Amino acid sequence: MVPNWSNDGKPGPINAHAETVAGLSTFSDSFRERRCILPASGSYAWCVQGGKKRPHRFRLKGGGVMGFAGLWSKWKVDDKPAPFTCCLITTTANDVVRPFHDRTPAILAPDDYAAWLEAGTKPKAAHALLQPHPSELMEEAEANPLVNSPKNEGPHLLDPAA
């Protein structure tokens, strides 16, 4: 994310920690005024097994789309087109993710989407929505190793590891 006040427009962080997001200058304006939801079918974490990086995919049990808590900004520079940028918010890992990583995207409950997006939601109330997703609603599986390269694209990447 590039904060709207940035002087150089260099890309900034791709994620923000829920515990500090409201108090850091990079994110505080967006946390108050520009919250968004990033739709996703899953997230990934890597662990080393047998000397190889192995990706693991985390998703809702049974599949479906989840909404990651995010922030957006529109960087302003003279008369040039202003790019929109965003970052996702991470929180402490739940029991499903913790064996692989200590952080995970903050997954919003669908009933909380409106409050997260509502401009009138105070930062303290918005912060309360950034909790680890219940472990019993998630599942993990070793993922297709082709996800290790950003050169690879396509729905086949969602196939489980063979």
UniProtKB/TrEMBL annotation:
Set out the biological process GO terms recorded for this chain's protein. protein-DNA covalent cross-linking repair; proteolysis
The record's EC number reads 3.4.-.-
* A Pfam family matched in the record: SRAP
What are the start and end residues of every segment in region (Disordered)? 140-162
* GO molecular function terms attached to this record: lyase activity; peptidase activity; single-stranded DNA binding
Q: Does the keyword Glycoprotein apply?
A: no
Checking InterPro entries in the record gives: SRAP, SRAP-like
Q: Which key words are in the record?
A: Covalent protein-DNA linkage, DNA damage, DNA-binding, Hydrolase, Lyase, Protease
Q: PANTHER family per the record?
A: ABASIC SITE PROCESSING PROTEIN HMCES, DC12-RELATED
Protein name as annotated: Abasic site processing protein
Q: What is the lineage of its organism?
A: Bacteria, Pseudomonadati, Planctomycetota, Planctomycetia, Gemmatales
